[in-house]
């Protein structure tokens, strides 16, 4: 066999494998979105929450702009025996003073080397370990916790002895009519609502999203949170899943944040999310597959597939590249199987997007705004290009907008 023939065979094998993997991922994406439409037994309150002690940890790094609003909405939800602890992590502003003035317990951490939310949370857990609560709830300093969410999360964690993730959505600012913000909000609805809801209805564990999380004390202390990883929440959820503590999605509990208005802040936030997700994929997909075999657990295989579903914009980019390569390959060789598989993958993605929009986002996102998705993808191209050139490895705080 000549070198040219060997290259042709190798190229065809690589293309076939790539398009097959894409098809599997897109099929799984469609299954998740479709499963979100299935009925599910509603969560019945047993009011065990009234007799338990809950500690809410709020990690905060220079959050003076938003911390007051967050705590004022959070404190009325707590019982007399509960505790609210703000971890002022490497703060150089008035975060600690504002939190104390509102009645929260404030602990301050200063460490110029070990930076990141994971280290702050570990510091908070070590502070309360001598008088441990029944449940630990983690809320970011820039979030709005809806009425009843703390009770729902805590009670679900107590009843199941599992980590619990609330519905966490990012909303556009009230004065924003940006198509980018509308599409970004829609992509987060797919990622943080539709897919975990579908996973739950299929009996699979969900991922964790960093805020609106509740843990039984024994569960949260079974893993090490002291990490500077830029998506420590995603890592935590996967570590717990591998250890047998499968996170559960609680649709009823709702926590929201706001998308950054400043372009640079939005790009910083997206870079951290996207680069972190890709880094976690590289590390944890092989680990999940290995543990699925070692532990004989199908849920770990499902978690690996769930993790392989990239952000919507990246998924469309990958599809576009493989579609171009497959068409070129088909024209040159007459082999059209890769084209067929890529077309099927594209149909799965389109059906998934339409299902998610028609059930969960049609009121917030006009149908014609879906046509702006290509422009949103174009905005995201530099984020993924930077991952190839210089992936982000350090946690960088997103600048806050003051919410009116």
CATH architecture of one domain: Alpha-Beta Complex
CATH topology of one domain: Spore Coat Polysaccharide Biosynthesis Protein SpsA, Chain A
Residue ranges: pLDDT <50 for 5 or more in a row? Answer: none
The residue-averaged pLDDT reads 87
Based on secondary structure, the structural category is alpha/beta
Q: Estimate the strand proportion.
A: 5-15%
Spatial order of the strands forming the largest sheet: 3-2-1-4-7-6-8-5
Q: Whole-Å distance between the termini?
A: 70 Å
| Biggest pleated sheet | 8 strands, mixed
Q: So, the CATH homologous superfamily of one domain? A: Spore Coat Polysaccharide Biosynthesis Protein SpsA, Chain A
Number of helices: 13
Order of helices and strands: HEHEHEHEEHEHEHHEHHHHH
- CA-based shape: globular
Helix content: 40-55%
Radius of gyration: 22 Å
- The total strand number stands at 8
CATH class of one domain: Alpha Beta
Topology (elements, then pairings):
Layout: H1 3-35, E1 54-60, H2 67-74, E2 83-89, H3 95-101, E3 105-109, H4 117-128, E4 135-138, E5 144-145, H5 149-160, E6 164-171, H6 179-201, E7 213-216, H7 217-220, H8 232-242, E8 248-258, H9 263-295, H10 298-308, H11 312-333, H12 337-361, H13 373-389
Parallel strand pairs: 1-2, 1-4, 2-3, 6-8
Antiparallel strand pairs: 4-7, 5-8, 6-7
Helix pairs in contact: 1-6, 1-11, 1-12, 6-12, 8-9, 9-10, 9-13, 11-12, 11-13
């Amino acid at each position: 066999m000549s070198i040219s023939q060997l290259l042709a065979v190798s190229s065809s094998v690589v293309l076939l494998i790539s398009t097959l993997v894409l098809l599997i991922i897109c099929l799984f994406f469609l299954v998740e979105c479709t499963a979100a439409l299935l009925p599910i037994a509603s969560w019945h309150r047993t009011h065990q929450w009234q007799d338990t002690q809950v500690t809410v940890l709020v990690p905060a790094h220079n959050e003076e702009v938003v911390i007051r609003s967050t705590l004022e909405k959070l404190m009325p939800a707590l019982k007399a025996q509960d505790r609210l602890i703000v971890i002022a992590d490497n703060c150089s502003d008035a975060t600690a003073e504002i939190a104390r003035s509102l009645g929260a317990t404030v602990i301050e951490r200063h460490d110029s080397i070990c930076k990141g939310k994971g280290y702050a949370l570990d510091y908070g857990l070590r502070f309360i370990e001598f008088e441990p609560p029944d449940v630990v709830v983690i809320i970011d300093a820039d979030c709005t916790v809806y009425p009843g969410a703390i009770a729902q999360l805590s009670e679900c964690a107590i009843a199941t002895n599992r980590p619990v993730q609330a519905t966490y959505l990012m909303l556009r600012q009230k004065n924003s009519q940006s198509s980018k913000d509308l599409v970004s909000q829609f992509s987060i609805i797919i990622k943080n609502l539709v897919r975990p809801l579908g996973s739950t209805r299929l009996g699979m564990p969900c991922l964790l999203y960093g805020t609106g999380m509740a843990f039984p004390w024994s569960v949260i202390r079974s893993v090490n949170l002291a990490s500077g990883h830029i998506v420590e929440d995603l890592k935590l959820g996967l570590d717990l899943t591998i250890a047998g503590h499968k996170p559960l999605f609680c649709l009823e509990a709702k926590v929201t944040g706001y998308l950054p208005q400043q372009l640079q802040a939005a790009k910083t936030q997206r870079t951290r999310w996207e680069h972190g997700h890709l880094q976690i994929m590289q590390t944890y997909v092989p680990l999940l597959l290995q543990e699925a075999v070692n532990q004989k657990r199908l849920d770990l295989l499902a978690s690996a597939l769930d993790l392989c579903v990239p952000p919507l914009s990246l998924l469309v980019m990958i599809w576009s590249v493989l579609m171009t390569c497959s068409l070129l390959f088909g024209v040159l060789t007459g082999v059209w199987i890769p084209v067929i598989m890529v077309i099927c993958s594209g149909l799965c993605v389109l059906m998934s997007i339409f299902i998610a929009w028609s059930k969960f986002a049609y009121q917030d996102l006009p149908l014609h705004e879906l046509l702006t998705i290509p422009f949103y993808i174009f905005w995201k191209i530099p984020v993924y290009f930077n991952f190839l050139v210089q992936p982000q490895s350090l946690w960088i705080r997103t600048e806050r907008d003051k919410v009116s």
